[in-house]
Amino acid sequence: MRQYELVVIFQPDLDETAFAAALEKLQGWITEAGGAIEKTDVWGRRKLAYPIKKQKEGWYVLLEVKMPPAFVRTLESNMRIDQNIMRSLIVVK
Questions:
Q1: Residues 6 or more apart from 11 whose CB is under 8 A from it?
Q2: What are phi and psi of 74, to 5 degrees?
Q3: pLDDT digits (tens, 9 = 90+) for 31-73
C-alpha cells in the first residue's frame, strides 16, 4: 500500500448534508478497495482560480490515504463519472 494525497473539488451548489454524503461516498470507495483514510481536511467553500463548468466556487477537501496502487485508476474513473466532483488530483506522498 502506498500513501497518497487526494485533493477534490466538489460542486458549490451542494448543501451541508449533500456535501457530507458525497464525501462519505468518496471515502467509501477507498475503504471498500482495502484502503485507509489517515486524515480528512475539509477546507470549505473557496473561490476557484478560474471558472470550471461556469462555477466560480467549490468545496475543497484534502485526503491523506493509503491504498493499493492498482486502485488509483479505478478511483480516478469513479471521480470523473461522479456529478458532484468537479476536479480531483491524486499525488504520491
A1: 55, 58, 59, 83, 84, 85, 86
A2: -65, -40
A3: 999 999 999 999 999 999 999 989 999 999 999 999 999 999 9
Distance of CA 6 to the CA centre of its chain: 6
> What's the structural domain count of the chain?
1
Q: Which three cell numbers stand for residue 45?
A: 467553500
State whether the Cα torsion 8-50-47-19 is positive or negative: negative
**Spatial distance between the Cα atoms of 57 and 60, rounded to a whole number of angstroms:** 9
Cα 36 from Cα 14, distance rounded (Å)? 26
Q: Cell for 25?
A: 461516498
User: Looking at the whole model, is its pTM more than 0.70?
Assistant: yes
